[in-house]
Amino acid sequence: MSELEGKRVFVTGSGAGIGKAIAKLFIERGARVVVSDIDADAAKRAADEIGAAGVAN
Ligand SMILES: NC(=O)c1ccc[n+]([C@@H]2O[C@H](COP(=O)([O-])OP(=O)(O)OC[C@H]3O[C@@H](n4cnc5c(N)ncnc54)[C@H](O)[C@@H]3O)[C@@H](O)[C@H]2O)c1
């Protein structure tokens, strides 16, 4: 079992770039992640792409 299993993670600025890459790594390692970005469309796209549990703006 992953050390991040059962953890909830909120990543700001994760609609693109470094934030999105960090969010994706957390998901791959077992965490449930909320993608947050000032750009709502980017946040939604990123969340769909990486399989995030939620989106916040
Ligand atoms: N990419 C690199 O190689 C690199 C290297 C060193 C430092 N940095 C720095 O790291 C930071 C992130 O880089 P990046 O390449 O991921 O940038 P990026 O511009 O690709 O992504 C940043 C994301 O943050 C979002 N954002 C901007 N302001 C926000 C706010 N107030 N609240 C929420 N979301 C916000 C943007 O909409 C965008 O989706 C920047 O400050 C950059 O200068 C980047």
TrEMBL record:
Gene3D superfamilies: NAD(P)-binding Rossmann-like Domain
Protein name: NAD(P)-dependent dehydrogenase (Short-subunit alcohol dehydrogenase family)
Keyword annotations: Oxidoreductase
Organism: Amycolatopsis thermophila
Pfam families, per database record: adh_short
Family: Belongs to the short-chain dehydrogenases/reductases (SDR) family.
